[in-house]
Design a protein that fits this description.
Number of domains: 5
Structural class: alpha/beta
Helix content: 55-70%
Distance between the termini: 68 Å
CATH class of the largest domain: Alpha Beta
Length: 662
């Protein structure tokens, strides 16, 4: 077993005897490349290009072969493996400090934060330099990313210890962060606060004085307003933990803002209780917590919960200030008021930059069963908020040039572009544009489950709408890409939803598709698309009553969803095959009213008209359909209407046969 430590330099040992292995500089660079590559594998071309960028291609490849031979001799050819294209480390035979650090950082649990922070013993490859400019550029970026992660984790640990009243450990982790970044004001402020609250005001004042001198001598600047305010509180001998905590949390939230990257974060403020009943204040607390938990299931937006927003309670703070302090793009605020036997809850979604109210909603429930009422209302609030946040984010990104967007923003804009026309599946042109965006991200990051899932969805839309020259091939591509997306990230509910729809329509496996769709909804009950795919499974699985119930719930969840026309079409078929012809015609008309160009909606309308014995109208609609979709026939229905039961398929085919469709 080989142990590779890359933090603080490079140290490679052979366990269990801890025999140190002496490597050359190039070998160390190669191990670093492998350790930071996905699955510990890298192409020969990339390795040669980065480490020997100062040489011609053939010479670089020859140097790589020579270095590989030497390195295999040192660490073993069972540990370091290579073929004609790739080089990799055997994961069962190596342990790597950077890999362990990243795994613990990703786990997002306090014990993992502590483990990750303890692993970070210095900068990546500290003191190791390469003559290759390309490698130095690459390692500089990786070094900076890892350093910022380490500092952020240490700040989180300091915050957690501080909140628990353990000021000694808060001080230790603040000092650890300062050791990495000596001029970080936020780290110094945490240290000073911890010393002050532990009763050592003299040490806190000394640290404050040293910080001012350090900033002046090293950076030529004065302390920030927050640091100066801290100094004033020290001089005034303010040691009230609630006052200090309010300042501390605001500062920590501000410094953690870069952790969101380019993603738009959402801050949930504590819901206010507007009555004197102490029980109502507990309900407000519970609803706040449940809304945070509900929103946290949404992959796209980081959620800032009550531990970082609690100090705004009962304060009429400007939303723009809260946005600046927490790093949130959107602010969720709310209140609870008792009115007789009812509790009334008002919720607002605000733009953090402008303070403008983007959306508001009112919810009410009977107070006789507080526990179930609280759970159902908070669940409903979270599910209503998510589509609204997504919609405003879509609109913001749609106006921006893709050249200036991050990968996350490109992914989000691709989803915007798909539905900009208001059509259920977008248009053929918007599908092409979105596909190109998803592919751009997949090229930059081949492991992006979201990008691969987006590509699968575009292939699926090509197939179901017959936009491609070969719909069957598009369907197979959708199936392949959807499975690939889940393999990359089995927690990606959107990828799982895409698998479910390809199971239903691509493989005609309605039972399997239903199981997968329900799994997707478990991960995020608020996602409209996942729930709609569940509806498709229920519809073609003959479970019409539950399908109708789910459709009605979805229209309440998001009355402006772009998928409403498809939803109306699904409702039409469910009502039709369950014997309710009038409702089937009504919803088919709603479907076409929402999207007149939706061919499958017109197909639903034709079937409903025939069932209602309106044959002349049905024949007219069939003529319109054939102009838009010349390839429509009974074979198309058999291929793209995956009814589980033969009786349902036969009934549907008979409606079209009755007006001459062959």
């Amino acid at each position: 077993m080989i142990r590779i430590n890359l933090f603080g330099g490079i140290n490679v040992t052979k366990t269990p005897d801890n025999v140190k292995l002496h490597l050359g500089r190039k070998a160390g660079c190669l191990l670093c490349l492998l350790s930071l590559s996905d699955n510990l594998i890298i192409s020969r071309e990339k390795a040669a290009g980065l480490i020997w960028s100062d040489r011609e291609d053939e010479q670089a490849r020859a140097s790589l072969r020579q270095e590989l031979s030497k390195l295999k001799h040192i660490i073993g050819d069972d540990v370091l493996v290579a073929d004609h294209q790739n080089i990799w480390l055997s994961p069962d035979l190596v342990t790597i400090d950077v890999v362990e650090f990243l795994a613990n950082a990703k786990a997002a649990m306090p014990k993992n934060f502590k483990a990750a922070s303890a692993i970070y013993s210095g900068a990546l490859l500290d003191g190791i330099y390469s003559k290759s400019r390309e490698f130095e550029n690459w390692v500089s970026i990786e070094r900076d990313v890892l350093e910022k992660k380490a500092i952020a984790l240490m700040i989180k640990l300091a915050q957690q210890y501080f909140d628990a009243g353990d000021f000694e450990n808060a001080r230790v982790w603040a000092e650890n962060a300062i050791h990495i970044d000596p001029v970080s004001e936020i780290c110094h402020r945490i240290l000073i606060e911890a010393l002050n609250l532990s009763g050592d005001r003299a040490a806190a004042l000394l640290c404050y004085t040293k910080l001012k001198l350090l900033l002046k001598t090293e950076l030529g600047i004065s302390p920030s307003g927050l640091t100066l305010e801290l100094g004033k509180r020290l001089v005034s001998k303010i040691t009230d933990p609630s006052v200090v905590a309010a300042h501390k949390v605001a500062e920590i939230s501000s410094v953690l803002k870069p952790l969101f990257g380019d993603r738009s974060a959402v801050a949930v403020l504590p819901f206010a209780s507007l009555s004197d009943n102490i029980e109502d204040s507990f309900i407000a607390e519970g609803i706040t917590e449940d809304v945070v938990n509900g929103l946290a299931a949404w992959r796209w937006f980081p959620i800032i919960g009550r531990y970082s927003t609690n100090h705004y309670r009962d304060k009429n703070c400007n939303k723009s200030i809260i946005s600046n302090e927490t790093g949130a793009r959107y602010i969720v605020d709310g209140s609870v008021r008792r009115h007789g036997e009812y509790l009334l809850i008002t919720v607002e979604l605000c733009d953090g930059l402008t303070g403008l109210i983007l959306w508001s909603g009112r919810f009410e429930g009977k107070a006789d069963d507080l526990y179930s009422m609280e759970n159902s209302l908070s669940d409903e609030i979270a599910r209503r908020l998510e589509p609204e946040i997504s919609r405003f984010e879509y609109n913001r990104l749609y106006r921006q040039d893709p050249v200036n967007l991050s990968m996350w923003e490109i992914l989000h804009k691709a989803r915007v572009t798909k539905f900009q026309s208001g059509h259920t599946y977008g248009t053929k042109q918007s599908n092409v544009i979105a596909m190109a965006m998803y592919r751009d991200v997949a090229t930059l990051d081949p492991t992006s489950s979201d990008a691969i899932s987006g590509i699968a969805t575009c292939h699926w839309h090509d197939a179901i709408n017959s936009w491609s020259a070969d719909p069957a091939k598009s369907l197979n591509r959708a199936i392949f890409r959807a499975k690939q997306a889940v393999e990359l990230d089995n927690s990606n509910y959107m990828a799982l939803a895409t698998v479910s729809i390809t199971q239903i329509f691509g493989q005609h496996d309605v039972t399997g598709g239903l199981i997968t769709a329900r799994e997707s909804i478990k991960m995020n009950p608020s996602d409209i698309l996942s729930r709609h795919y569940l509806v498709c499974g229920l519809e073609f699985g003959g479970e019409f009553e539950e399908a109708i119930e789910q459709c009605n719930y979805m229209t309440r969840l998001d009355p402006c969803a772009p998928s409403l026309s498809v939803l109306y079409g699904d409702l039409s078929t469910c009502y039709l095959l369950s014997g309710h012809t009038t409702q089937a015609i009504e919803y088919a008309q709603k479907c076409l009213s929402s999207d007149p160009d939706y061919s499958r909606g017109r197909q639903r309308y034709i079937a409903a008209l025939v069932a209602g014995e309106k044959l002349s109208e049905a024949k007219h609609e069939y003529k319109v359909l054939k102009e838009a979709m010349p390839q429509f026939d009974l074979a198309y229905i058999k291929q793209t209407y995956p009814f589980k039961y033969k009786r349902d398929l036969d009934a549907y085919l008979n409606y079209f046969s009755e007006i001459g469709v062959q």
